[in-house]
């Protein structure tokens, strides 16, 4: 089975690259581990907001780049962040040409381009027939029209090399759909018969991050990987990262992930994920650990708070604490789930309430004295506008801190939900995989959330997974085509 390009992974990055390569005349195959026609992946489950660091994709590149710098603290690869800023509008135009439908879902800039029909940000996971799912269906149909192949039930195992450059992929046909036993033998194919080689001078890794691999999560992100709630499809298990590393690829930024704060009861209630999220309630009030103390800057935002929670010895011990005023204002803001605030309760979530902080502490199982001291320090900082004097200091970058003073005092026992990992394979602006000496590995490319360098960092800066997937996928395909004289 000979191709010009073999893509590992059938999410948005992989299908974008495969379609662009096929548009440019390349023989292309996509190897996808999932066997179902609507195989699960984060791209299909996504909320559908297409933005770059919460900026409009069509904004001026210098404005987008400044937003990325603010989000990441300027601690990411400037070449990659400039690439994303420069290519945002073109990527959006290309998606629309592929059949991607968009609506403006609200008055805020980050709501300008939302895949239609939009996925509701209400309790529970409702994705079939929604914008991201329909986009993947359109890209799959387009690939077939362009004579490309999407091979489901095929798990890549190793990247083949010959003469110091990539030569293809060795895979297992887990579904048995592309291998068969000897003629006349009525049995499932053996392990040996399921093996297949897909030869190509270029391979693109686009199989997502490693959020579904508990061992890697424990190694790089959290000592208690099982205490993080899997907020996405969980299909990213780091195979592509493993294969690239085996060829000497540089890995970068493996310690951060994109996610949000969820109610802890999500572990037993499927209606409490991926929404409602508790980020803005935590940013208005305080986020405390099992000892009743603050442990991070709530003002940076929910992605940062989720990451800092993951580092705790007890990531499931956190609580969001606020008062009645915040519950009826921030909690009811239609920009952010819960929308309105009783949707969390209707879905089975528990909001603890008490007329005193001591009584609230007893309900959520934290030391009463510690919680009282934490709230008092918070309220004093709000009154004096001296948030940076707190321990740890806090800002108001995402949400203005509000006093916790109006009873009943409220709290939600929370957890960190992990959607995808932000770090991974180091790439250049053509999506070529970089070796430890900084040189590209001949014929090897990577795109989407298996790559690192464009987001993450100490502030866990999030730039937008869908836009990153499309832009890096297109760049990879175009460089392969140029190398093949197309």
Structural write-up:
- The protein is of the alpha/beta class and 486 residues long.
- The chain has two domains: 5-250 and 422-483, FAD/NAD(P)-binding domain (3-Layer(bba) Sandwich); 258-418, Alpha-Beta Complex (Flavocytochrome C3, Chain A, domain 1), CATH 3.90.700.
- 31% of the residues lie in helices and 19% in strands.
- It contains 15 helices and 20 strands.
- The protein has helices at 12-23, 42-45, 61-72, 78-97, 131-145, 191-194, 214-220, 239-246, 279-284, 302-310, 324-328, 342-346, 357-364, 368-384, 465-483, and strands spanning 5-8, 28-32, 102-103, 114-115, 149-152, 154-162, 165-173, 195-199, 203-205, 229-230, 251-252, 257-263, 286-288, 319-322, 352-354, 409-421, 424-426, 432-434, 440-446, 451-452.
- The chain has a six-stranded mixed beta sheet, with helices on both faces.
- α1 (12-23) runs parallel beside α15 and α13 (357-364) crosses α14.
- It is elongated.
- The model is unreliable at 176-182 (pLDDT under 50).
> How many strands?
20
Distance between the termini: 21 Å
> What percentage of residues falls in helices of 4 or more residues?
25-40%
Structural class: alpha/beta
Q: Provide the CATH superfamily of the largest domain.
A: FAD/NAD(P)-binding domain
Q: What does the overall shape look like?
A: elongated
- Look at the structure and give the mean pLDDT: 93
Unreliable runs: 176-182
Beta-strand content bin: 15-25%
For the structure shown, list the relevant keywords.
single chain; FAD/NAD(P)-binding domain; alpha/beta; six-stranded mixed beta sheet; Flavocytochrome C3, Chain A, domain 1; 2 domains; 31% helix; elongated
């Amino acid at each position: 089975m000979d191709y010009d390009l073999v893509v590992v992974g059938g999410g948005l990055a992989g299908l974008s690259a495969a379609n662009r390569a096929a548009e440019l005349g390349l023989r292309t195959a996509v190897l996808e581990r999932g066997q179902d026609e609507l195989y699960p992946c984060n791209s299909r489950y996504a909320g559908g907001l297409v933005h770059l660091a919460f900026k409009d994709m069509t904004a001026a590149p210098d404005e987008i780049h400044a937003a990325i710098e603010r989000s990441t603290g300027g601690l990411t690869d400037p070449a990659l962040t400039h690439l994303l800023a420069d290519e945002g509008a073109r990527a959006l135009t290309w998606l629309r040409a592929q059949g991607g439908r968009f609506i403006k879902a609200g008055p805020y800039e980050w709501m300008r381009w939302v895949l239609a029909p939009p996925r509701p940000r209400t309790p529970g996971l409702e994705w079939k027939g929604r914008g991201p799912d329909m986009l993947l269906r359109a890209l799959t149909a387009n690939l077939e029209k362009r004579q490309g192949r999407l091979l489901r039930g095929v798990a890549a195992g190793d990247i083949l090399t010959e003469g110091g450059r990539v030569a293809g992929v060795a895979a297992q046909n887990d579904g048995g759909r592309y291998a068969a036993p000897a003629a006349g033998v009525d049995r499932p194919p053996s392990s040996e018969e399921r093996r297949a080689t897909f030869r190509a001078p270029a391979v693109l890794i686009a199989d997502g991050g490693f959020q579904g691999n508990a061992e890697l999560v424990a190694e790089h992100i959290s000592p208690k990987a099982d205490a993080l709630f899997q907020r996405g499809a969980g299909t990213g298990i780091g195979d592509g990262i493993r294969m690239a590393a085996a060829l000497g690829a540089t890995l970068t930024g493996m310690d951060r992930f994109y996610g949000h704060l969820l109610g802890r009861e999500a572990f037993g209630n499927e209606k409490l994920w991926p929404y409602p999220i508790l980020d803005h309630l935590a940013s208005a009030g305080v986020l405390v650990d099992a000892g009743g103390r603050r442990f991070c800057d709530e003002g940076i935002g929910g992605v940062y708070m989720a990451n800092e929670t993951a580092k705790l010895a007890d990531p499931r011990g956190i609580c969001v604490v606020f008062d009645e005023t915040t519950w009826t204002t921030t909690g009811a803001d239609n920009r952010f789930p819960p929308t309105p605030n009783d949707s969390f309760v209707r879905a089975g979530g528990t909001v603890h309430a008490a007329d005193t902080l001591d009584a609230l502490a007893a309900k959520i199982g934290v030391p009463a004295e510690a919680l009282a001291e934490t709230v008092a320090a918070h309220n004093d900082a709000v009154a004096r506008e001296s948030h940076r004097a707190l321990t740890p200091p806090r800002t108001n970058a995402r949400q203005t801190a509000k006093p916790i003073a109006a009873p009943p005092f409220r709290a939600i026992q929370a957890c960190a939900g992990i959607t995808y990992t932000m770090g991974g394979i180091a790439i250049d602006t053509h999506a070529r995989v970089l070796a430890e000496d900084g040189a590209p590995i001949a014929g090897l490319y990577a795109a989407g959330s298996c790559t690192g360098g464009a987001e993450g960092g100490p502030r866990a800066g999030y730039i937008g997974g869908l836009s990153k997937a499309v832009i890096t996928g297109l760049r990879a395909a175009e460089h392969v085509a140029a190398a093949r004289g197309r």
